[in-house]
Amino acid sequence: MVKQPRRGTNTRRTFLTATGGAALAGLAGCLGEGDGGGRESDDPVRFVLNPAEEQTDIVEEYTPMKEYLEAETGADIELIRAGSYVETFEALNTNQAEIADTSPTGLPGSQEFADVLGMRTAFGGPLYFSTIITTPDSDIESIDDLAGETMATGALLSFSGTLAPAMMLSEAGLDIGDFPQGDANDLEIQTADDHDTTREQMINDDTVAAAATGAFASAPQIPQEQFDEHEEFVEHSAEYEDAGSELEDGAEELQLIAVSDPLPRAPIAARSDWDEPVRDDVREALLDAEEEDLIPDDVDEEYELWFTGIEEADRSDYELVVELFDELDLEFEDFEDE
């Protein structure tokens, strides 16, 4: 279908102006004020983490990676949980972190202060997918059927939970208006903090007809055969083999409406002006990490990391994100941390 026209000039400014320090207040309480670059060589390497799922202890999940990096580099690694996608890049911008686990959507506006160290992979694959889902008793069979309905999405800067689904809606012919900066015209879209909450909003609220989440948060509750017609998902998604796995344990069954094109997995980013020798050691250790380094055999299944390696990458690997920002007429600095 023909894409709905968007407004604006599609020029992206840098991230620096709007974020300043106001939205960083929540993270500053954890990290302390920025030190203006006056780090000592033996200070801990601050690694900021942003959870995509509500029901996770991300510090616990990253502890094996922390221990691996410390053993490989001799550095002390400090893991710090952020509260949002924006906060992870603000931490780099204001010298409150050296490394950040973050979303691809922060890259278009962070050229002046953040570098890509590598791209996360899962079971050998650097690609993942967004899904739009509903419940089996729903009358929603395609994206077209969402006209006039309410749909739940993830955090405003979530690549697979919000921005990729917004493009899916637009490409299907729905007028999404100013979303995610404002309201959509052909349907109501409400956002949540993370993928798990988005999914549960739809399950528990009869007024919410559909939800958008990364496949990692939906596939375990979708019968595997529903993905079989999506060849790229079958070939590239780490979630395909696990599809439907939670149904036998009594999880609520979900119905697949649509699957996105392949998306590049999230980057590990570093502060550009972090010029200590340990930076190269950390990057090399990340790229050399094996699955058993990140998910040791003795780790409780509840605390397993959701990716299995990091491969070499740079900003050119995320051109799709830049194109998506252009298509949606977005600038990273327009997003406010809530």
From TrEMBL:
Q: Name one Pfam family in it.
A: Phosphonate-bd
List the PROSITE patterns hit by this protein, alphabetically.
Answer: PROKAR_LIPOPROTEIN
Q: What is this protein called?
A: ABC-type phosphate/phosphonate transport system, periplasmic component
